[in-house]
Specification:
With 276 residues, the chain is α/β, with parallel strands linked by helices. 36% of the residues lie in helices and 7% in strands. β1, α3 and β2 form a beta-alpha-beta unit. The longest helix is centred in the last third of the chain and has 24 residues. The chain starts with 12 loop residues before the first helix and ends in a 14-residue tail after the last helix. The structure holds zinc ion.
Length: 276
């Protein structure tokens, strides 16, 4: 790899690791240690956010953290973001793009098989859509079954890397199109936010009080939970909150990627090679 190859912004190709921006020679020279596969979704997010919100957050988080990790000597490859996920509970809205749970699980497993064939042994799924979690967890089990000792796969969302003990910055607990997602998109892609349409929207609780405590898992028909396809206080979202939160998470994710990239591979990974 020639160290003087540059992107227009002056960043070296070697430091990028974004597969979609690399040539075959650069890819051959890169010798990735870790692959990050961002998982998004294309679905309604109320009158103020775009269908691509989850994809913007997944690819934005992956891109920023991979760049930072590689600038610190890691060798992390950023794969293209998967923009379609599990949305069987979004059918009441128009054009909430969806593939079956088993299809997503199969895609994630196929990606692990493919990376194993490419001699990459460490894989991180960075997910930004709640509907993908079940298929992701099933895929991690299946990948373990198929590749334990040969490939390590793990999954997380960008918010997993928020520093412990950090103050709560968002004013609702909305899982969808509320303060959190609106603030992040105001930072990552402000042109996609319709500020004048960001209004407080109540979330609907089920009749059964026992389902309201968050401990029981079930699939919500989203149009009952959020008739307007959004909920919470997007009106309180700010670019500043989004930037601070995002940068904090990216720093934590980059730290993890640097550690993962530097850790030598052995069949007992991620436990000590010497432990019995
Ligand atoms: Zn979302």
């Amino acid at each position: 790899m020639s160290e003087n190859k540059k992107f227009p912004n002056g960043e070296s190709v070697k430091a990028s690791g974004k597969l979609e921006e690399m040539t075959i020679d650069e890819v051959r020279d890169f010798q990735a240690e870790v692959a990050v596969f961002p998982l998004g979704s294309t679905e309604p997010h109320g009158p103020h956010l775009a269908y691509g919100t989850d994809t913007v957050i997944a690819s934005g988080g992956a891109g920023a953290a991979v760049r930072e990790a590689n600038s610190r000597g890691a060798r992390v490859l950023e794969l293209p973001c998967l923009p379609i996920g599990n949305n069987v509970n979004f059918k009441a809205y128009p054009l909430a793009c969806r593939i079956r749970v088993e299809t997503l699980e199969a895609v994630l497993c196929d990606m692990a098989d493919f990376l194993r064939e490419e001699a990459i042994r460490k894989l991180v799924f960075l997910n930004a859509h709640g509907g993908n979690v079940a298929a992701l967890q099933a895929a991690l089990r299946r990948i373990h079954d198929r590749h334990a000792g040969e490939l390590f796969a793990c999954g997380c969302s960008i918010s997993a890397f928020r520093k412990r003990g950090s103050p709560e910055v968002f004013n609702d607990h909305s899982p969808h199109a509320g303060d959190y997602e609106t603030s992040l998109v105001l930072h990552l892609a402000p042109g996609l936010v319709r500020r004048e349409r960001s209004v407080p929207t109540a979330m609907v609780e089920p009749d059964l009080a026992g389902l309201g405590n968050g401990a029981i898992q079930w699939v919500k028909p989203w149009h009952e939970f959020m008739p307007a396809s959004c909920g919470g206080r997007p009106d309180l979202a700010t670019e500043e909150k989004g930037r601070e939160y995002f940068e904090d998470c990216v720093r934590g994710f980059a730290d993890f990627l640097v550690e993962l990239s530097a850790a030598p591979w052995h069949p007992r990974f991620p436990y000590s090679a010497a432990s019995q």
